[in-house]
């Protein structure tokens, strides 16, 4: 399948790497040049198909617009006049409004992938117009299931799905950095601390997924009565750890 990109910054390039990781041909990935250094750089690095006009995207089944919210709408409008197929946006763009101005063989859907798509371990939330054609839904799902899990959600829930899956990797990265600081403070080498913490996170997630136990049950399996873990848990409560995360998700989502 040929897939086009307008915008190859952080998330655009993560999706491109995800497609390459899933063994898509590099020449099936079309990237709009438009004088943007990031597009030229990634095209040269991975031998992608560089194009200079939106019309050239007509060879593609889907075109992903991955630019910031403020410029996405104008780009989608221009693209809709020159391209026929599936238009996707990782940023702005009103689903109903954009779709209402498109030709019959063209459609627009919104996607929120997260950065782990680049290694096939991502999550992508997708919203379609309510009467979207099943073949369009199948094509978009096919693109993103190559890179991880896909959730098709109503448009009014896309924001919170995008926050919980797409923003929280940054929260977890901050947590890794803080845990690493504490490990270093107590004598572990920096590089060793990252390895231990990242493996711990991976194992903890895998155990939660495999056991299907609630997080509270899994926590109880670690907290020996009178032991060290519960002292740490109590300190997290005292310092507002859970409340901080709840507030962070709400701040990102609203
Ligand atoms: N970074 C992430 O994890 C995620 C980002 N998003 C959303 O995706 C959008 C893009 O985010 P990032 O990739 O992080 O931003 P970014 O700033 O890293 O990338 C945007 C890219 O678009 C290019 N660009 C801007 N205008 C252009 C145009 N007219 N034609 C071609 N290229 C153009 C820029 O040169 C830049 O390389 C934002 O709306 C963001 O909210 C959504 C999900 C996850
Ligand atoms: O920070 C942002 O706005 C985007 C949305 C999801 C991840 N990054």
Automatic annotation (TrEMBL):
<dbReference type="InterPro" id="IPR008927">
    <property type="entry name" value="6-PGluconate_DH-like_C_sf"/>
</dbReference>
<keyword id="KW-0028">Amino-acid biosynthesis</keyword>
<dbReference type="InterPro" id="IPR029036">
    <property type="entry name" value="P5CR_dimer"/>
</dbReference>
<keyword id="KW-0560">Oxidoreductase</keyword>
<feature type="domain" description="Pyrroline-5-carboxylate reductase dimerisation">
    <location>
        <begin position="155"/>
        <end position="253"/>
    </location>
</feature>
<dbReference type="Pfam" id="PF14748">
    <property type="entry name" value="P5CR_dimer"/>
</dbReference>
<dbReference type="InterPro" id="IPR053790">
    <property type="entry name" value="P5CR-like_CS"/>
</dbReference>
<comment type="similarity">
    <text>Belongs to the pyrroline-5-carboxylate reductase family.</text>
</comment>
<protein>
    <recommendedName>
        <fullName>Pyrroline-5-carboxylate reductase</fullName>
        <ecNumber>1.5.1.2</ecNumber>
    </recommendedName>
</protein>
<dbReference type="InterPro" id="IPR028939">
    <property type="entry name" value="P5C_Rdtase_cat_N"/>
</dbReference>
<dbReference type="InterPro" id="IPR000304">
    <property type="entry name" value="Pyrroline-COOH_reductase"/>
</dbReference>
<dbReference type="GO" id="GO:0004735">
    <property type="term" value="F:pyrroline-5-carboxylate reductase activity"/>
</dbReference>
<keyword id="KW-0521">NADP</keyword>
<comment type="function">
    <text>Catalyzes the reduction of 1-pyrroline-5-carboxylate (PCA) to L-proline.</text>
</comment>
<comment type="pathway">
    <text>Amino-acid biosynthesis; L-proline biosynthesis; L-proline from L-glutamate 5-semialdehyde: step 1/1.</text>
</comment>
<dbReference type="GO" id="GO:0005737">
    <property type="term" value="C:cytoplasm"/>
</dbReference>
<dbReference type="Pfam" id="PF03807">
    <property type="entry name" value="F420_oxidored"/>
</dbReference>
<keyword id="KW-0963">Cytoplasm</keyword>
<dbReference type="InterPro" id="IPR036291">
    <property type="entry name" value="NAD(P)-bd_dom_sf"/>
</dbReference>
<feature type="domain" description="Pyrroline-5-carboxylate reductase catalytic N-terminal">
    <location>
        <begin position="2"/>
        <end position="85"/>
    </location>
</feature>
<keyword id="KW-0641">Proline biosynthesis</keyword>
<dbReference type="GO" id="GO:0055129">
    <property type="term" value="P:L-proline biosynthetic process"/>
</dbReference>
């Amino acid at each position: 399948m040929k897939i086009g990109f307008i915008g190859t910054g952080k998330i655009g390039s993560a999706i491109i790497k995800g497609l390459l990781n899933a063994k898509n041909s590099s020449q099936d990935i079309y990237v709009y040049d438009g004088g943007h250094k990031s597009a030229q750089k990634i095209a040269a690095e991975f031998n992608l198909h560089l194009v200079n006009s939106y019309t050239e995207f007509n060879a593609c089944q889907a075109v992903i617009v991955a630019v910031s919210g403020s410029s996405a709408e104008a780009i989608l409008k221009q693209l809709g006049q020159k391209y026929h197929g599936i238009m996707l946006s990782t940023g702005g763009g009103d689903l109903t409004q954009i779709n209402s101005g498109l030709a019959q063989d063209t459609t627009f859907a919104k996607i929120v992938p997260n950065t782990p798509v680049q290694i096939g371990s991502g999550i992508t939330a997708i919203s379609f117009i309510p009467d979207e054609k099943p073949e369009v839904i199948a094509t978009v799902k096919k693109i993103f299931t190559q890179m991880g899990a896909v959730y098709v959600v109503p448009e009014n829930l896309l924001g919170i799905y995008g926050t919980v899956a797409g923003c929280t990797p940054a929260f977890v990265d901050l947590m890794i950095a803080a845990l690493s600081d504490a490990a270093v403070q107590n004598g572990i080498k920096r590089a060793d601390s990252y390895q231990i913490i990242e493996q711990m996170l991976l194992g903890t997630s895998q155990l939660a997924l495999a056991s299907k136990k609630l997080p509270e049950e899994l926590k109880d399996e670690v907290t020996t009565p009178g032991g060290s873990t519960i002292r740490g848990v109590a300190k997290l409560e005292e310092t507002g750890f859970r409340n901080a995360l709840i507030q962070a998700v709400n701040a990102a989502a609203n």
